Amino acid sequence: MMRRRTTLLTGCTALVLALGATACGGGPVTAGGGDKALSGQTITVAGVWSGTEQKNFQKVLDAFTEKTGAKTQFTSTGDNVSTVVGSKIEGGNAPDVVMVPQVGVLKQFAQKGWLKPLSKKTEQSVDADYAPVWKKYGSVDGTLYGLYFKAAHKSTVWYSPDALAQAGVKPPKTYDEMLKAGQTVSDSGLAAFSVAGQDGWTLTDWFENVYLSQAGPEKYDALAAHKLKWTDASVVDALTTLGKLFKDKQLIAGGQKGALNTDFPGSVEKVFGPKPEAGMVYEGDFVAGVAKDQFGKKVGEDANFFPFPAVGGGEAPVVSGGDAAVVLKDGKNQKAAQALLEFLATPEASAVWAEAGGFLSPNKKLDLASYGDDVTRATAKSLVEAGDSVRFDMSDQAPAAFGGTKGAGEWKLLQDFLRDPSDPKGTAAKLEAAAAKAYQD
Predict the structure, then answer these.
(1) pLDDT score of 134 more than 80
(2) Both 54 and 132 in a single domain?
(3) Are residue 301 and residue 250 in the same domain, yes or no?
(4) For residue 243, what are the domain limits?
(5) Number of CB atoms found within 10 A of residue 372's CB
């Protein structure tokens, strides 16, 4: 199952920040008590990453080993982190550190009593170097359990500069302008948007950006916690707004049927592949990696983005996702595990992966120069400057039965809505019924 977090494909992510002089070599950043202080110890780490992402994270772990002497062993869990980690705990083989990809899973782990609070040193780094929202998403009942090391910017609309130039349109500032620009692109011979409707998670991201902008952050937070019902008028309004796009067969490559038969990589291919069918594709910063790695596009020239535009009179949304490092109570090496998180909280650690590519950090002390291209720097800058207005992916905050299961819950109901967007109110009622059951369970 391909989630829309930061673990999608080789070029997956991008988020932010600003590296201080100490991370650039001006002075050593200590981790766990100084150079080689942990020689002879081994830390086991589990996370969803594989392929290029796993290799790049290993570079970060290797930097920690170089600094402290501690060895590391990384195990890829695949997408079902909760099940894999739970079975390891039951078998007496719990990893020391887990990279958790969803807020909902972090809360689940904490509520099961699996997690150790993070050290005072890590908490001080988070307080000083991260926007408060990242501490909020890493905390449960006021205790900090998770350090957000890697993030994704999910409010980016990617486009072919050639397609927009040929249509004579510029990147829009509002949602209405985006639909109007899309119509002009469509009139020029290409569909406006490629929509990955086969992957339900992309549709939740569409909804979340529209809802955050149109309804505002307070209602977004309430809906994410299911303190606001999905039958609320604000949800119906957002679905109505989204339905205007979904029902316009000229705007979507292949129409609704074509969208429902297009997965995420396919949606990128329809814009940046050898035979373009559309001028724009909405998804997170990780689109850039796919365009570059799979289709040879030069990011910034052949592929670019504009921020997801403001809807109605709202502010432009900034929706994010990310992977948080947590320390397990049943891990065998608590001290070294806490030292690893203290290191991951430094700009030095983030710089290692930023230089390798396919990465964004919520650490605002990371120097933007650490990123390898102007587009990634722009994405990172957008994320960092959003500060506390960043909101974590709503479906990643929900129970998996509602927000993260293929063929069920929000994913399926929004696919049904894409197929027939004529009844926003009815769709809202179905979403509420599914959410109520999932949150109760």
Answers:
(1) yes
(2) yes
(3) yes
(4) 156-317+400-440
(5) 15
Dist. CA 22–CA 346, nearest whole Å? 9
Q: Do 68 and 32 touch, CB atoms closer than 8 A?
A: yes
Alpha carbon 64 to its chain centroid, in Å, reads 25
Confirm whether 6 is domain-assigned.
Answer: no
Q: Is the pLDDT of residue 7 over 70?
A: no
State how far the Cα of 271 lies from the Cα of 194, in Å rounded to an integer.
7
One domain, residues 173 and 217: yes
Find the CATH number of the domain harbouring 353. Answer: 3.40.190.10
Residue 3 falls inside a structural domain = no
Q: What is the pLDDT of residues 319-356, one digit of tens each?
A: 999 999 999 999 999 999 999 999 999 999 999 999 98
Mean pLDDT (the chain, rounded): 91
Q: How do residues 284-308 score in pLDDT, each as one tens digit?
A: 999 998 998 899 999 999 999 999 9
Give the E-state strand segments of 169-299 in sequence order.
Answer: 191-194, 278-282
Please name the residues in contact with 72: beta carbons below 8 A apart, sequence gap of 6 or more: 42, 43, 44, 45, 61, 62, 64, 65, 340
CA terminus-to-terminus distance, the chain: 22
Measured in whole angstroms, how far is the alpha carbon of residue 269 from the centre of its chain?
Answer: 20
Tally of domains in the chain: 2
pTM to 2 decimals? 0.85
Is there a single domain that holds both residue 36 and residue 142? Answer: yes
In a domain, 1, yes or no: no
Query: Does the residue 303 lie in any domain?
Result: yes
